Amino acid sequence: MAVRGVGRLTCVSLCAQRNSRFQRPALRPLSCPGTVAADLRREEQPSGSTETGSEDKSSKKRFSEVQKERREQAQRTVLIHCPNKISEKKFLKYLSQHGPINNHFFYESFGLYAVVEFCQKESIHSLQNGTHTPSMVTEAAIPFRSRFFNLKPKNPSNQTSERSCIQSSNQLPPSSKKLFELLCYAESIDDQLNTLLKEFQLTEENTRLRYLTCSLIEDIAAAYFPDCTVRPFGSSVNTFGKLGCDLDMFLDLDEIGKISTHKNIGNFLMEFQVKNVPSERIATQKILSVIGECLDHFGPGCVGVQKILNARCPLVRFSHQASGFQCDLTTNNRIALKSSELLYMYGALDSRVRALVFSVRCWARAHSLTTSIPGAWITNFSLTVMVIFFLQQRSPPILPTLDSLKILADAGDKCIIEGNNCTFVRDLNKIKPSENTETLELLLKEFFEYFGNFAFNKNSINIRQGREQNKPDSSPLHIQNPFETSLNISKNVSQSQLQKFVDLARESAWILQEKDKDRPSPSSNQPWGLAALLLPSVANMKSLAKKKNKRPASERIKSLLDSIKSNSTENSTSTNGKRTISTHT
Ligand code: GTP
Ligand code: MG
């Protein structure tokens, strides 16, 4: 799903930055980015390890608040391709001539990059004004004043390397080996689920880079559509994203129509002259086509641009080389944005939700139930909805139904998109925490048991009402789209893929049951609990073993040649006496 380019990352803590001499505290913006970071850090705490249920009494941020703060933060941020040997101190000193720096970090992705967040937006104009377009010798540069820069030393020999003392952290998820080690040494299955969440969830730096990438793409799209907004959605923002997941972007042009600074007084109504096209879909295709061209021709760092305009949801797919993200840009896809908000809400309501979803997603990936290419397989989005549905079934329920969230909504929450009622309460503090105290271990086992025995042939999954319903059609797996209720979000899933899911779920429930009885000692280093679930399934192991037992390739080729030879002798004289096959050269 994503181009995994981002490698090692150097982070400098926000606190260290705040104390640095490059910042003047008096100029700190009102919307302090640290508050978002603090929220994220709180999120990064292993969820549900000692407590079950969501007992966090502190006020939780709304999705829109997080988006607003992150967006504002990204607008004050620049991306700089740095020389490999750079003195961090000199680099910061050089940049701080444009204004105080609030935060920065380095990462490697086919070169060294720095993400630098200024305290004020004005610093970016100052930096841009001091930057020139390179003059090429053999090629021609297309001038574009973006926030993506190239830093070159004036005198390379003067640059001493101070990178050795920079603390680096890895931005990629752990290797399978490291993960197995971590899981094997965990104290309990609950601990394993929380460890997996901690290792795979998006880091603070990765989240910043995602918002920054959207902001950079927004600058390009704004060349055509000033005042447009490019918003991240999907797993980048719904708190269920794993390191390395794709970056889904939504080009929002709706705000443009709403901008009107003057009150319309008088007898007339003034409208913009616009071009009309026969349908909304054609408008979407035309807009994305032109933005795709822009990204391809003028977008610094945008490569492999593909315009996939005939898809159900037209999109432009490209790699943002510098960040390493595989990006999908859509427009007219507001419901997906609302789905992201709903998932964010569910993820924030109870500390067990994310831990369970991450484990189920990793389990599905380990067994090739999900892949990065579209096809007849189940998607991460569907799996997440299945976990939410399962948690609505517990007694007492761990998560509320969507209908009950709608009842709690007030007038400000009202949201109708393309005739679909997408209203639900957005203030997390209005939702009563669950009284359910089940452990993650029990929930994981029960999840597999529940779906290993689910009547997929006749029932549909429905998080709006939180109960099984009769399937309205014959698709093997029916998961009702929460907002477009006549649609099935898993329409693509084939019977054989569903069967594979069911078989693996049963097998996993059985493994958890068995391991319960006979857990190996920690020192034995034997996979147990979640680690055992992430190993290839028994069925796969058998087929692997069969393959391994096969004779060496050279032997197989020799016997194949022998059999062809004997066939050729057999066939050399057919009934009509003519040679039909000959192996003679
Ligand atoms: P990853 O696999 O980590 O990328 O998860 P994701 O949740 O980002 O999924 P994906 O990139 O496939 O889709 C992005 C978002 O689009 C999802 O989070 C949903 O909000 C929405 N979406 C994806 N598939 C469907 C679908 O079949 N129906 C609807 N209504 N929305 C979908
Ligand atoms: Mg995605």
TrEMBL record:
<dbReference type="InterPro" id="IPR041252">
    <property type="entry name" value="RL"/>
</dbReference>
<dbReference type="GO" id="GO:0000965">
    <property type="term" value="P:mitochondrial RNA 3'-end processing"/>
</dbReference>
<dbReference type="GO" id="GO:0005739">
    <property type="term" value="C:mitochondrion"/>
</dbReference>
<dbReference type="Pfam" id="PF17797">
    <property type="entry name" value="RL"/>
</dbReference>
<dbReference type="GO" id="GO:0000287">
    <property type="term" value="F:magnesium ion binding"/>
</dbReference>
<feature type="region of interest" description="Disordered">
    <location>
        <begin position="153"/>
        <end position="172"/>
    </location>
</feature>
<dbReference type="GO" id="GO:0005524">
    <property type="term" value="F:ATP binding"/>
</dbReference>
<feature type="compositionally biased region" description="Basic and acidic residues">
    <location>
        <begin position="54"/>
        <end position="74"/>
    </location>
</feature>
<dbReference type="GO" id="GO:0030145">
    <property type="term" value="F:manganese ion binding"/>
</dbReference>
<dbReference type="GO" id="GO:0005654">
    <property type="term" value="C:nucleoplasm"/>
</dbReference>
<feature type="domain" description="Poly(A) RNA polymerase mitochondrial-like central palm">
    <location>
        <begin position="189"/>
        <end position="347"/>
    </location>
</feature>
<dbReference type="InterPro" id="IPR043519">
    <property type="entry name" value="NT_sf"/>
</dbReference>
<feature type="region of interest" description="Disordered">
    <location>
        <begin position="37"/>
        <end position="74"/>
    </location>
</feature>
<protein>
    <submittedName>
        <fullName>Mitochondrial poly(A) polymerase</fullName>
    </submittedName>
</protein>
<feature type="region of interest" description="Disordered">
    <location>
        <begin position="561"/>
        <end position="585"/>
    </location>
</feature>
<dbReference type="GO" id="GO:1990817">
    <property type="term" value="F:poly(A) RNA polymerase activity"/>
</dbReference>
<dbReference type="GO" id="GO:0042803">
    <property type="term" value="F:protein homodimerization activity"/>
</dbReference>
<dbReference type="InterPro" id="IPR054708">
    <property type="entry name" value="MTPAP-like_central"/>
</dbReference>
<feature type="domain" description="RL">
    <location>
        <begin position="63"/>
        <end position="131"/>
    </location>
</feature>
<dbReference type="InterPro" id="IPR002058">
    <property type="entry name" value="PAP_assoc"/>
</dbReference>
<dbReference type="Pfam" id="PF22600">
    <property type="entry name" value="MTPAP-like_central"/>
</dbReference>
<dbReference type="GO" id="GO:0002134">
    <property type="term" value="F:UTP binding"/>
</dbReference>
<feature type="domain" description="PAP-associated">
    <location>
        <begin position="443"/>
        <end position="486"/>
    </location>
</feature>
<keyword id="KW-0464">Manganese</keyword>
<keyword id="KW-0808">Transferase</keyword>
<dbReference type="Pfam" id="PF03828">
    <property type="entry name" value="PAP_assoc"/>
</dbReference>
<feature type="compositionally biased region" description="Polar residues">
    <location>
        <begin position="155"/>
        <end position="172"/>
    </location>
</feature>
<keyword id="KW-0460">Magnesium</keyword>
<dbReference type="GO" id="GO:0097222">
    <property type="term" value="P:mitochondrial mRNA polyadenylation"/>
</dbReference>
<dbReference type="GO" id="GO:0071044">
    <property type="term" value="P:histone mRNA catabolic process"/>
</dbReference>
<feature type="compositionally biased region" description="Low complexity">
    <location>
        <begin position="566"/>
        <end position="576"/>
    </location>
</feature>
<keyword id="KW-0479">Metal-binding</keyword>
